[in-house]
Amino acid sequence: MQGGMVWCSGWRLASAVSNCGGLGLIGAGSMHPDILEEHIRKTKLATDYPFGVNVPLLYPDIDLLINIIIKEKIKIVFTSAGSPKKLTSLLHDNGVLVAHVVSSASFAAKSEEAGVDAIVAEGFEAGGHNGREETTTLTLIPSVRKTTSLPLIGAGGIATGRAMLATMILGADGVQIGSRFAISNESSAHPNFKNYVVNSHEGDTHLLMKSLIPVRLLKNKFFDKISDAESNCASKDEIQKILSKGRAKKGIFEGDIDEGELEIGQAASLIDNILPVAEIMKNIIDEYYSTLTELQNPSLYQFE
Predict the structure, then answer these.
(1) Are 262 and 217 in contact, with CB atoms under 8 Å apart?
(2) For the CA atoms of the chain, what is the radius of gyration?
(3) Domain ranges across the chain
(4) Phi/psi at 110 (5° precision)
(5) Which helix (H) or strand (E) holds 174?
(6) How far apart are CA 39 and CA 28, in angstroms?
(7) Domain 11-188 class?
(8) Which end of the chain is more exposed for a tag (fewer CB within 10 A), N or C?
(9) Torsion over CA of 116, 72, 42 and 29, rounded to 10 degrees?
(10) Mean pLDDT of the 260-283 span
């Protein structure tokens, strides 16, 4: 499954992933309702395979987005950033399957009680908005697996076939990948952002703005402003003033790598090229199966 990332996950990316055998998601979090409707219709023209929409529940016009999803007969919705309790019943009544993104086992249990069909357990390594618990994927997946019997999708720090296999060994039934697809040819992110990620290194992302909503960002001038403010015990209002409006669009979509909010996961340091989705998918699946074959080789477990 491909992450529904703001300013990256438009119809080109969603349809490309679905056409390659994955589940593409349109990221509604950065779209006005009319833009979402346009992207849904373009995706329908570009693929005959299933796709879905990611909806952050904190979106101000959430009811308008849900009405469009129902009207366009979308069958899969991934919800995040809020409680799925209210909308899950409405979506089910209209034949929509619901997966909800959580950052802790306790939220997974509450999501199951709310009636969702699947859980996305997203670890601390993930980009964009993140969990305050700072639980890593390695710890989160088995914890959530103990908590729920629902289909479990692992997310956070997964950009390779080896990581996909590791996540599934821990108890996930599948994976959701964001950062690797954000730096693809079909991603709607600006080339400046993509190249900045390609040239990033281990340790270049950090979690900031914990007093508002924790966000994992790449270091740049905007990052330094927020970091300095937090070090000086700035209030929520002061941090919000620095954040202002449209920072993520400025950085990811418009390519301002100095003053924009550059949301990306820790897997950024593993991404050293911009590739078409078809090649990314092939690389991940090939590595998954080759690693699985290696692990099934009995000679690996013979010790003298």
Answers:
(1) yes
(2) 19
(3) 11-188, 191-266
(4) -65, -35
(5) strand 174-176
(6) 9
(7) alpha beta
(8) C
(9) -50
(10) 97
Quote the mean pLDDT of the chain. Answer: 94
With CA atoms as reference, report the closest residue to 39 among 57, 19, 50, 53.
53
pTM over 0.70: yes
List pLDDT tens digits, range 85-124: 889 999 999 999 999 999 999 999 999 999 999 999 999 9
| pLDDT confidence of residue 211 | 80
- The 10s digit of each residue's pLDDT in 129-179 is 787 888 999 999 999 999 999 999 999 999 999 999 999 999 999 999 999
Alpha carbon of residue 237 to chain centroid: 27
The angle that helices 62-71 and 33-46 make with each other, rounded to 10 degrees, is 30
| CB 21, CB 47: distance < 8 Å | no
Cα separation, 8 vs 175, whole angstroms: 18
Residue 285 CA to residue 158 CA, distance in Å, equals: 13
